[in-house]
Please model this.
Amino acid sequence: MNQIYNDPIGHWVVVVVAITLLLFVVLTATAYTVWFERVALGKIQRRPGPNRVGPFGLMQLAADGVKLAFKESIVPAGTDKVIFVVAPTIGVAAAFLSWAVIPIGLWYNVTYWIADVNIGILLVFAFSSLNVYAIVLGGYASNNKYSLLGGLRSAAQLISYEMALGLSLVPTFMIVGSLRLRDIVEYTVHWGPYTGPIPLILLTPIGFVIYLIAAVAETNRAPFDLPEAEQELVGGFLTEYTGLKFVMYYLSEYVNMITVAVLAALLFFGGWYLWIVPPVLAFLIKVVLFLFLYIWLRGTFPRLRYDMLMRLGWKVMLPLAIANVIVTGIVLVAVQG
Amino acid sequence: MPDEEKGSDEGLAEGQGAEKHLPPHPTPLRGSTEGVPPKPEGEVSGVVRDVAALAGGLKTTLQEFFRPVVTTMYPEDKTPRSERYRGRHYLRRYDNGLERCIGCELCAAACPVGCILVIAAENTDENRVSPGERYAKTYEINMLRCIFCGYCEDACPVQAIVLGPEYELSDTSREKFIYTKEKLLEPLPPDVEARLNAKKKDVP
Model:
């Protein structure tokens, strides 16, 4: 395997194959995440959810996709046409780029993700913050006051929670001493008789809570889905989008949702390590549990008011995250000398 | 005009002046702690209570998640219908095969939306359709207009027209909603027929 990696042409072949596979896997995962969300939300409301198209409604997303693809793609009058078309593309590109550095799991030391860079998690954050461009530009280019307001809300929200999100992970980096996602997952402790990887939530529980809340806000999901608050802003920045351009926003939202669930599993719950469970299966179980948590939150909590959102972000999450960093630093110095 | 402007200016000035010497408002002001209900003994406050409230909400939705769904899978499963449900119309026959309808047009007269068309013709010995003098040569109901009030059934002196239990009446063209005599003369569901026969008001 290493021989192929070291050969320049072989390396590119591996990367291209990996990209293709990953696109396929992520797209399929997205489709079934949507199905899973609709069914789980349905169960919470004591209805079955989609169950008509295919067995258990599993083909629902194919049907929806075909429907949306054949819809007329309207570009309203007075829009900035170039930005209007480019904005959703930025969203999808940003959502998928994060996956270049996310390790999907190890199988007997075969690395099958695209890039194993030493600043992995920073790259993920860099790409995920590109998503704000998609939303702001989409809202701005739509020539519609609801879209613009939705876009502006989203910009403020993403900037507010980006900081708490980043700071919530700093204690993890301080403990592990690396930004490489693989190193974080494989962080090994020597606790008495036990030597091996641990779920890092044991060391950074507060960081996990902050990450969880900030991640929901970052992905614009309920109860932080203010940018697309139907009651106040029609569809927010999505109002003027139809057909495939709408699909792109929809897709990027769900890919981002999977990304933050995957990151939570990797950074706080030991990634692909789970007793004797095979790595990929263990990883999948953790990610699905996180996805269910997000759906559960959506099915439970009403949307925050805008001032509540800002108060929570700036007055609670950010100070808590900074305090967490400082306390972790002091403890680390005290323990390691 | 200038006088009016002056007057309004004076009024404004007076209003501003009077603000300083406002008479006490009839509703007295409440102090910040006055009238606030006392906190129940032993209740925790602040963050702990809020988090407990959030957890309570999550618990409720999770409980609902594991309870059985209440949806009726409609086209496959149907909710039970009432015995008295009024759906599409039927024209009935006597046991000997003769049509009950005598072409009196009372149903058409009773119909509030005028969706029934009856054209009567004379019975002859060669062509006997109903036991009376006349029979309905044409009997049409416009189901797009019908409001299923059942007045036609009430008006009919021979219980010829009745409303059956069918409610799935959707179709693909407007023409298909004009129910002609052939369609209306389809046999009633046996349970409805039995119930109507139990009344035994009719004379054969």
In short: Confidence is low (pLDDT under 50) at residues 1-15 of chain B. Chain B touches chain A at residues 54, 57-58, 60-62, 64-71, 73 (CB under 8 Å).
